[in-house]
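Hey, resending since the last one bounced:
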Amino acid sequence: MPKRVLQGVVVSDKGEKTIVVKVERRFTHPVMKKTVRRSKNYHAHDEANAAHVGQTVFIEECRPYSKTKTWKLVEDQAAAVATAEA
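The structure tokens again:
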């Protein structure tokens, strides 16, 4: 089964090897037919402490690192763009 990959914005990098990522999803409300935005925070493992607040990053589900940490940092968007341009 493939692992889910989500894109979000880092809202906290205070923890050691941990970041908090806000992932926003949009959907059409079933009754009102209006676009609704919902967001959720995920704790992700960042081995190198590379991500900082405000960066757009990709996170991937993985084994549990702790009680709340079941995601890991795949790459940040700036690094992905720099790699693509080179």
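The CA atoms of residues 26 and 37 lie 5 Å apart.

Sorry for the duplicate.
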